[in-house]
C-alpha cells in the first residue's frame, strides 16, 4: 500500500506540521506501508490547462503521477478566506475526474478559528466525492490555539490524528479486500 500525505498550501507551517504528525503515526502503527509527503510549498506547480495529467513534466508531472499511483491520500489544508487554498484546487483541476476512484482519502484541516469547521464538509468533501474518492467521513480540525512553536500541543488533536491514520489505513485495506473478493456473474 502506498499512502501520500498532501500538504495543500504554498505558505504557512501548521498544515505541514499536522501532516508530518499524521504520517508519522501511520509509520509507527503500520511500518510496512510506503509513505511520502508532498508539500505544495516545495514544488513549482503549473496551472491546469486541460491537458492529460501524463502530459505535464517537472514538478507538476511528479505530483500528479504520485497522487494517481497512491492507494490512500491524507489531504491537509489550511482555510483561507473561508475556502480551500487555490494551490490545492489547482491540483484537483490537474487530475482526471475519476482520479480518486479506488483510493481512500482522509482530511486534516488547519484554521485560525473554529468558525471555519464546515469548509471541509461543504467544499472539500463534494470535490472528493465527485472525483470518486472513498472518503473517511471524520476529519481532524485543528485550530491556531492547538499549536505552539511549530508543534501540536493539544493531546486531543494528537489522539484524533492517531485515529485518522488508523481509519485511513483500515478503510483502504477493507476496500482492497472487497475488490479482491468480487465475483464476476
UniProtKB/TrEMBL annotation:
Segments forming domain NADPH-dependent FMN reductase-like: 1-143
Q: Which UniProt keywords apply?
A: Flavoprotein, FMN, Oxidoreductase
| Keyword Transcription part of the UniProt annotation | no
Q: Domain of life here?
A: Bacteria
Q: Name one GO molecular function term.
A: oxidoreductase activity
User: What's the short name of a Pfam family annotated to this entry?
Assistant: FMN_red
Q: Which Gene3D superfamilies has this protein been placed in?
A: 3.40.50.360
Entry annotated with the keyword Oxidoreductase: yes
Q: Return the protein name.
A: FMN reductase
Origin organism of this chain?
Sinobaca qinghaiensis
Amino acid at each position: 500500500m502506498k499512502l501520500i500525505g498532501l500538504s495543500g498550501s504554498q505558505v504557512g507551517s501548521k498544515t505541514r506540521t499536522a501532516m508530518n504528525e499524521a504520517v508519522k503515526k501511520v509509520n509507527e502503527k503500520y511500518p510496512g506501508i510506503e509513505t511520502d509527503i508532498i508539500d505544495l510549498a516545495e514544488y513549482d506547480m503549473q496551472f491546469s490547462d486541460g491537458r492529460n495529467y501524463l502530459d505535464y513534466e517537472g514538478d507538476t508531472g511528479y505530483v500528479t503521477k504520485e497522487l494517481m499511483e497512491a492507494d490512500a491520500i491524507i489531504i491537509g489544508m489550511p482555510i483561507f478566506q473561508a475556502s480551500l487554498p487555490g494551490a490545492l484546487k489547482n491540483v484537483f483541476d490537474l487530475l482526471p475526474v475519476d482520479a480518486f476512484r479506488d483510493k481512500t482519502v482522509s482530511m486534516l484541516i488547519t484554521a485560525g478559528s473554529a468558525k471555519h469547521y464546515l469548509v471541509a464538509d461543504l467544499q472539500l468533501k463534494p470535490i472528493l466525492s465527485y472525483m470518486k474518492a472513498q472518503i473517511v467521513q471524520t476529519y481532524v480540525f485543528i485550530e491556531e490555539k492547538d499549536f505552539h512553536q511549530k508543534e501540536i500541543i493539544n493531546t486531543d488533536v494528537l489522539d484524533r490524528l492517531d485515529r485518522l491514520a488508523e481509519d485511513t489505513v483500515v478503510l483502504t485495506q477493507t476496500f482492497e479486500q472487497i475488490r479482491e473478493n468480487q465475483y464476476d456473474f
